[in-house]
């Protein structure tokens, strides 16, 4: 992989039992997909906090957030908590918008990771899977979004490498493409999927020298069972409106992209490695 950006080695700092976990991200980081009795969401963040044994969990994530929202809105709140460990998880919402810009995404993620590591936090982030294998899409649209995800991963990889952040590769996460991992909407992990995320994040922190209080159990418990009625209600109340909203923004851009002459690629920043092409 060719990366021109200088790799920054964080100053040595003592690791061990952390005290504050900050979570920055989108609806998955909020916990959507893992409902609990009495209403609301749990998600991977509380499970990870328990595994790390932190005294404080500061989750500044918001549903629908894009990487730019982390840089401008969530980062200041996270830094005020003075975290010694942090999870950064966003980018999928960016792939589904017409103003997708890999250069801007890299710059925003680089800024977020830089500020967190400069503040002394050990950071773990992610790279994405092929979500077209989970949420079934027509072939051309799937290939279009898969290319977007590949470009997003280039930006995320370059920023993580530069700042020495740990990375959870969702494409290589065991069980990532199994239906039981996902909630009824097939956009967010279910309870098992959130437990898998918490387990993977905890392992990355342990690899960085952070002491764990306990392992994250992959045995589902404490969540609310989701029924077929829940699926139908979600489809009517959330799924269809979500698709209509996204279609108004992305589908015209997608149609225009299909009409472009073959062989003219989208511009990619010269400072980033280029997407691998497939035959």
Characterise this structure.
The protein is an alpha/beta fold. The chain is 44% helix and 9% strand. It is built from 8 helices and 5 strands. It has helices at 27-30, 44-52, 67-80, 92-95, 102-118, 139-163, 191-207, 228-259; strands at 20-25, 56-59, 85-89, 122-127, 166-169. A 5-stranded parallel sheet has the order 2-1-3-4-5, with helices on both faces. It is globular, with a radius of gyration of 19 Å. It starts with 19 loop residues before the first strand and ends in a 20-residue tail after the last helix. This is SGNH/GDSL hydrolase family protein. InterPro entries: GDSL_Rv0518-like, SGNH_hydro, SGNH_hydro_sf. Pfam families: Lipase_GDSL_2.
